[in-house]
Amino acid sequence: MTATTSPAAAPDTPSPLTDVTRDEASLRRFLHGLPGVDQVGVEQRAAGLATRSIKKEAKRWAIDTAVSMVDLTTLEGADTRGKVRGLAAKAMRPDPERQDCPRVAAVCVYPDLVETAVEALAGSGVRVASVATGFPAGRTSREVKLADTRLAVEAGADEVDMVIDRGAFLEGRYLEVFNEIRAVKEACGSAHLKVILETGELATYDNVRRASWLALLAGGDFIKTSTGKVSPAATLPVTHVMLQAVHDWHERTGELRGVKPAGGIRTTKDAIKYLVAVHEVAGEQWLTPDLFRFGASSLLNDLLLQRRTQVDGHYSGPDYVTVD
């Protein structure tokens, strides 16, 4: 990625937000002082933007942009080194018969498979991302979470996807969550940190906004909706709230931070709805893999099929792409 933020492991949050994390009371006051989310309003806006049509000449651009934003992911207990190598090959050349097809943004794996991914992707420009911190539940000690993170980084991960302690957040122990994110960010070193909020467990849009700001205050380079292991995962209204948060963060601090919806985004039509939301809510400069990602491996197959339709003028069918 290009520089989305100054190193977030630095001890101070940018002015004028430095003081809001000095103690629990200050952080609570700040987070609960954020404007409330109008549930009806955000859902209506999301639904309205989702009806926007993309002109034919822009659809190819949208498809290629979405392909370049995909984090191709395998996070199963049965993952093997061979599967990771196969995923890496697809990441570098998503459609082997179409040399002009862009590569994806990253391959995301468990920490013990990072080394395999690094070797397979060497020199390609595709980044290696690793989940960490006791993914997906995060129900382990901070020492284990930090060790998990260091394992991934030492193996060569460019990016780390951590999960927040949702129990602590929902109990209002905001400073505890903040400090844990900061500790993980420090353990990341030069690797970028994506902070998974698991929005399906946060219950309200107000909680999503608070968790988004908490992650940004703590130094997250990206805020991510979900692990993909909990339903609901990514939704357009939730993503709107998170896009608004990074937009407002930029307005207040001058820093650019990213958003990653993950889980449940399976079709080109879905992806385009999200790209429209990015453009309209955050702004055009977020339409880059440096600032927006899709955590949706199955999405890539449909994007490739629709891309062939745009290029060839007819639908190719699923036999023409590899199925993950």
Give the gist of this structure.
The protein is α/β, with parallel strands linked by helices and 324 residues long.
Characterise this structure.
By secondary structure, the protein is of the alpha/beta class. It has helices at residues 24-32, 39-49, 56-68, 81-92, 114-121, 142-154, 166-170, 174-188, 205-218, 236-253, 268-282, 297-312, and strands at residues 71-73, 106-109, 127-131, 159-163, 192-196, 222-224, 258-260. Strands 1-2-3-4-5-6-7 form a seven-stranded parallel sheet. Helix 5 links the parallel strand 2 and strand 3. Helix 8 (174-188) crosses helix 9 (205-218). The longest helix is centred in the last third of the chain and has 18 residues, at 236-253. The radius of gyration is 19 Å and the shape is globular.
Secondary structure layout plus pairing:
Elements: H1 24-32, H2 39-49, H3 56-68, E1 71-73, H4 81-92, E2 106-109, H5 114-121, E3 127-131, H6 142-154, E4 159-163, H7 166-170, H8 174-188, E5 192-196, H9 205-218, E6 222-224, H10 236-253, E7 258-260, H11 268-282, H12 297-312
Helix pairs in contact: 2-10, 3-11, 3-12, 4-5, 6-8, 8-9, 9-10, 10-11
